[in-house]
Amino acid sequence: MFDTAHLAQAIAWRHDLHRHPELAFEEVRTSAMIAGLLQDWGWNVHQGMATTGVVATLGDGSGPRLGLRADIDALPIHEATGLDYASTIAGKMHACGHDGHTAMLLLAAREIAKRGVRGGSLRLIFQPAEESEGGAKVMVDDGLFRQFPCDTVYGIHNWPGLAPGRLVARDDQMMAAFAVFDIEITGKGGHGAMPEQSDGVVAAAARIASGLQEVPARSLSPLDTGVMSVTQIHTGSAYNICPDSAVLRGTARWFAPAAGDVLETRLNQIATGIAASQACQARVDYQRRYPATINTATEAALARDVGAAMGLDVADAAPSMASEDFSFMLEQVPGAYIWLGAGRDGNNPGLHAATFDFNDAVLPVGAEFWVRLAERVL
Ligand SMILES: [Zn+2]
Ligand SMILES: [Zn+2]
User: Fold this and answer.
1) 18 vs 75, 322, 330, CA distance in Å?
2) How far is the CA of 282 from the centre of ligand 2 (A)?
3) How far apart are the CA of 71 and the centre of ligand 1, in A?
4) Cα 74 to ligand 2 centre (Å)
5) CA distance 109 to 42
6) What is the pLDDT of residues 83-126, one digit of tens each?
7) pLDDT digits 0-9 by tens, 289-325
8) Please, are residues 12 and 104 in contact by the beta-carbon 8 Å criterion?
9) Which ligand is nearest to the CA of 100?
10) Where are the domains positioned within the chain?
11) pLDDT tens, 366-375?
12) Is the link from the previous residue into 64 a cis peptide, with omega within 30 of 0?
């Protein structure tokens, strides 16, 4: 579908983005590059939404109005790929392939501008801060769909756990909702040899950690999905001191809103109840971050149709317990989040690994998918 020179240039953009990773809401260089290219190709470009977001439109704003989204941010990881286009910035890297998502949508944008749209309007949404900071929510709150209405919206993520040639767009659940929590336990400290003179801070921390692991197994229906992972316990300073405080941190994941409520309620009960049983106090800070990413069936079916017409294998796969802020866009507008197979033979590092690198072989596949989807809808 793509001119060899255009494809080579898209890979060059991808490598350039990879060399210059930018974290949440700091994607200034990335955003300027995207806006400059789109302007050159005749797109109507709006910059600065959610600080570094770019929204570009082709068409007069009439319907049908299709939104295609790419995330543009990098991660605070020190790259260990050894590639000649490795990150030039210590402690920052594109370890989730958002450099690839950006280049894919740019390649499609160039092709679509050349072909033109027959009717309706196409919006490209280049979104900052997907990793943990919820840039999609900030764009929605900043008026993304009020200023640039969309009837449907789609997002793609490269998926190294699936072979190239695979495309997954589920009819409903794609990715889980998530929360993060801090539990601070306080009590009286004392000499390690005289435990009767202090409170059970360490015992409380240990029991809360094991109690929380049981929540999905004992408080959710076996048919409901949920995760409760304690990932940090910090306490103590010496062999012979019973500490007076401990902190536990971790993450919860779920799909059904009712399951999310159960996880939060039980976490509070277990933390405060176990702390009290050790004569300690627990202070819980539980923050819900992203809702579950739930596709609408009609749009998921269209995505599979477009994929199948390209010869991709669109068989279903299980949803992921990881999370994605595209969920905030899907809360507003029907659409689908899509995984594009991007695995490599042999060593195949996962997303967020310091050795991860977006698989350039799937760049034209994703871009062709965008072009074909736009042609189907508009
Ligand atoms: Zn990521
Ligand atoms: Zn990602």
Assistant:
1) 11, 23, 28
2) 34
3) 10
4) 9
5) 10
6) 999 999 999 999 999 999 999 999 999 999 999 998 999 999 99
7) 999 999 999 999 999 999 999 999 999 999 999 999 9
8) no
9) 2
10) 4-175+292-377, 177-290
11) 999 999 999 9
12) yes
Provide mean pLDDT across the span 152-163.
Answer: 98
Pick one of 1.20.1440.20, 3.40.228.10, 3.30.70.360, 3.20.20.140 as the CATH number of 177-290. 3.30.70.360
Cα–Cα distance, 272 to 307 (Å, whole number):
50
Q: Tell me the mean pLDDT in the region 166-170.
A: 98
CA of 351 relative to ligand 1 center, distance in Å: 6
Distance (angstroms) between ligand 2 centre and the Cα of 73 equals 8
pLDDT per residue as tens digits for the range 224-266: 999 999 999 999 999 999 999 999 999 999 999 999 999 999 9
Report the distance separating Cα 244 and Cα 306, nearest Å.
60
Would you tell me how many other CB atoms lie within 10 Å of the CB of residue 218? 9
**What token pair was written down for 362?**
């799937």
Q: What is the whole-number distance in angstroms between the Cα of residue 127 and the centre of ligand 1?
A: 13
Topology of domain 4-175+292-377 in CATH is Aminopeptidase (3.40.630)
pLDDT above 90 (res 61): no
Q: Nearest CA to 365 among 189, 191, 214, 159?
A: 159
Give the residue carrying structure tokens 């929590």.
181
102, two tokens: 């950006």
